[in-house]
Amino acid sequence: MVISREELAAMPAAERAELAAALADLSARELWAPSRTKRRLFLIACVVALIALAVWTVGLGLTLPRHQRVGQWRLVWVGFDVAELIALGTVAWSAWKRRQLLVPATFISGTLLLCDAWFDVVLSWQTDERWQSLISAALVEVPLALSLWWLARSVILRTVRFARARFGLGGPIPSLHALELFAGLVEEPPEADSRRRSLA
Predict the structure, then answer these.
(1) Using one digit for the tens of pLDDT, what is the confidence trace for 135-162?
(2) 60 burial via Cβ count (<10 Å: 0-12, 13-18, 19+)
(3) Domain extents for the chain?
(4) With 0-12 CB in 10 A as exposed, 13-18 as middle and 19+ as buried, what is 170?
């Protein structure tokens, strides 16, 4: 049986939403790939990396000299600025072409800008350029980084809102930190989670 668009438009909104949710559930089952082992391996790798980084950071704090002459100083900063240019260029291109690449590009660009501000301020703190670095960080780099992160958050939430509306799912959109992964590093398919909630 094929339902025409006219018949769909004539259906009550509640029935149309129920039909859309049922179709979305069927599509999700076809796309689902359980990955409990992958999730555990990923979490173990994260914990190991966190422990190793913590030990490394403490070691650096205890052993690094307060002053150090370095080579390739110009290459370091020019290379870093080139990375920022590439990241911001990717943001502009993604926004122009309306691509989902905009989300990781904005996160990366914001992070690079914050790193730039941190190094500028810390490395110039005992020089005559410290006030210039502080003003640049406070008025340019940090606000721009936060704006880029806010843009990424907005795009993610709007994408989720659009997907939920497309599948006939109502209700408020959760905040970004509470938003569950759709697939990938999760342990069970969506239908199992919905059955568990219906029994609760």
Answers:
(1) 999 999 999 999 999 999 999 888 888 8
(2) exposed
(3) 74-169
(4) exposed
Q: Give the model's confidence band at 187: pLDDT under 50 very low, under 70 low, under 90 confident, else very high.
A: very low
State the DSSP H helix or E strand holding residue 163, giving kind and residue range, or none if neither: helix 142-166
Q: In this structure, are residues 141 and 109 in contact, taking their beta carbons and an 8 Å threshold? A: no
Cβ partners under 8 Å of residue 191, min gap 6: 25, 28, 29
Q: pLDDT digits over 47-80, tens only? A: 999 999 999 999 988 888 887 787 888 898 999 9
The pTM for the full model equals: 0.73
In sequence order, what DSSP letters do the residues of 79-125 get, joined into one string? HHHHHHHHHHHHHHHHHHHT-TTHHHHHHHHHHHHHHHHHHHHHHTT
